[in-house]
Amino acid sequence: MQPKKFGVIGHPIGHSLSKVMHTRVFKEMNLPHTYEAFDVAPENLEQFIKQTDLAGINVTIPHKVEVMKLMDALDQSAKDIQAVNTVKFDETKTGYNTDGIGFLESLKEEGISLANKNILVIGAGGASRAILTSLKNSEARIFLANRTRQKALDLNEQLNLNATVISFDQSTFEKYLPTISIIVNTTSLGMHPHEDASPIPKESLKPNHIIFDVIYNPLKTKLIKDAESIGCKTISGVNMLVHQGAQSLRIWLGIEPPIQAMKEEVLKNLSN
Ligand code: NAP
After folding, report:
1. Are 243 and 170 members of one domain?
2. Which ligand 1 atom lies nearest to the CA of residue 127?
């Protein structure tokens, strides 16, 4: 088999979980391919995309939006989310976004159905946009809260979500949370180095809430720890990270990657 080269581009790129995760897949599946992390400054993005000999890349901060202009074609996922996190290079350069599928697959893996559920998405940034897009065709009723309320209202309109936009404050959460089944944190509240922060006070959580925090650093955010302590089912950002990566591999190589091995590798590297 012809070895192919893959990679992730970002700036800064630091210690890349994508690199260890994808390298593990190639090892596990006895594939000759390689995966590297590339620190690409914004001023070098265009040249990198034009000249690379890679067969596929993942794209991370700050290039997810800018890279769209450099594509020959955009998959519907990238058009909907208005950002690219996966590029396939063959005769053409095609941009995809796998974050939404990563979110849905994480729920599916846990056997969680969205049918007739009330889901509260907190945050209105890039991760929220991907998740909301993936929820659009589900049977869930969407509630949306963001610190900057106008951004939530704009997102609701742009994506034609028909969501209920609620205020980002404790008394509003107290009012709505008893009707909510799934709470998704897409804000950076609780992310390293602000580990003490959480978007929802512990007192507002109930044991029947399912808590999905897209943050994976730390592995257990305050929100996840609070939820676990009262018996809620929880899902961490690691699951979404793994499933969005798995979808990139399906796009590049048409393979069905080993999800558990990917998760194990990410967890090993996060706990280092
Ligand atoms: P983003 O576009 O910058 O959006 C950040 C969001 O957080 C906004 O809604 C912002 O509210 C809110 N926020 C920030 N600080 C806040 C505070 N102090 N109080 C209340 N709200 C606050 O970022 P993003 O790309 O969506 O990423 C968000 C998180 O998701 C990061 O932790 C990232 O690592 C994670 N993520 C995980 C995955 C995965 O695969 N697991 C994928 C993508 C992202 P305002 O609008 O009011 O500023």
Report:
1. no
2. 26
